[in-house]
Amino acid sequence: MGLLIEGQWHDQWYDTDKTGGKFEREAARFRNWVTADGVAGPSGDGGFPAESGRYHLYVSMACPWAHRTLIFRKLKGLESHISVSVVHPDMLENGWEFRPGQEAHRDHRYGAQYLHQIYTRAAGDYTGRVTVPVLWDKERQTIVSNESADIIRMFNSAFDGLPGVVAEQDFYPQTMRAGVDEINERVYHTVNNGVYKAGFATAQDKYESAFKALFESLDWLEQRLADTRYLAGGVITEADWRLFTTLIRFDAVYYSHFKCNLKQIRDYPNLSGYLRELYQVPGVAETVDIEQIKRHYYVSQRTVNPTGIVPVGPQLDFSAPHGRGHLS
Ligand SMILES: N[C@@H](CCC(=O)N[C@@H](CS)C(=O)NCC(=O)O)C(=O)O
In 3-state terms, what secondary structure has residue 183? Predict the structure, then answer.
């Protein structure tokens, strides 16, 4: 675990001293957008038109942020247009790494050993954390974006003109945007990032405030899902996929490893049925790898789990009936 400083790798855990024990997530640095015609998007530079075969996605199966992009790639029918490489779940002194000898974990572009080599290929003097997901432009040999929230928006619409892309599947419909944005805001701070704030806190009060906000939000979500099928209404939106990737990891990892242990998701009837329903959407189960998820957190985060022992449980069954069909 570490970061690049002016292009040089430094092995260093998160510095929570300067924030009184509070974990603060660093903002992503590459914020360009792929657009249908290559004009600039909401941030960054233009020149990244949606073309088949031009872009490559670097992900970890363990990472909830990268997981969002894999779900969108799958459900939008982008697999034949955007290639992918998956880092190894162990993220140790060199950060995310590839295993060049293993088909499942090799870098298909450059045969790199470490993900930080991909970052310095894009910017030789890069300073910052080396995170997944990364959307890579094979033509300009640079990183388009390393912000999952932006990448899923690109995947949702920029490639819609290409053959086989499911243009009618819109996870950010115009008429629902205000509601989706509002839900995302609360879910991001208190749930998606909330579990990390609890797990990486190095002061009791910072842990407890993250814990409290997290479970208040889970209660709020549980109530909301009592009479609406999905978070923003009757159709699945990006708000659901953004919550899904945290919920699917919760009982296996966040409950114990990050000390988010007031309740498990299985203790919430609506949230757990909703989680199973999303898991059962065709294609989604293939994006979920619980073994890699568990291995990453328990093996890599040695300040949280010094022994690196991976727990055997819990028993999880996301394929059981979801019981949400009566909510239209
Ligand atoms: N804002 C980023 C956050 C991505 C992120 O933090 N990914 C984690 C893995 S779950 C990572 O790569 N961490 C490595 C590090 O912080 O050094 C996004 O949503 O794309």
Answer: helix
Q: What is the pLDDT of residues 171-183, one digit of tens each?
A: 999 999 999 999 9
ipTM over 0.90: yes
Q: What are phi and psi of 57, to 5 degrees?
A: -110, 125
**65 in ligand 1 pocket by Cβ < 6 Å?**
yes
Q: Enumerate residues 6+ apart whose C-beta is below 8 A from 129.
A: 3, 4, 26
Judge contact between 235 and 61, C-beta under 8 A.
no
Q: Is 63 a catalytic residue?
A: yes
Closest CA to 197 of 16, 63, 64: 16
Read off φ and ψ for residue 58, nearest 5 degrees.
-100, 125
Is residue 99 within 8 Å of residue 105, measured between CB atoms? yes
* CA 51/CA 59 separation, integer angstroms: 20
Active site residue 260: no
Which domains are seen in the chain, by residue range?
2-157 (3.40.30.10), 174-280 (1.20.1050.10)
- Report d(CA 202, CA 259) in Å as an integer: 12
Q: Cβ(131)–Cβ(1) under 8 Å?
A: no
| Whole-number Å distance between alpha carbons of 159 and 241 | 19
Q: Is the CB of 143 under 6 A from ligand 1?
A: no
Query: pTM for the full model?
Result: 0.98
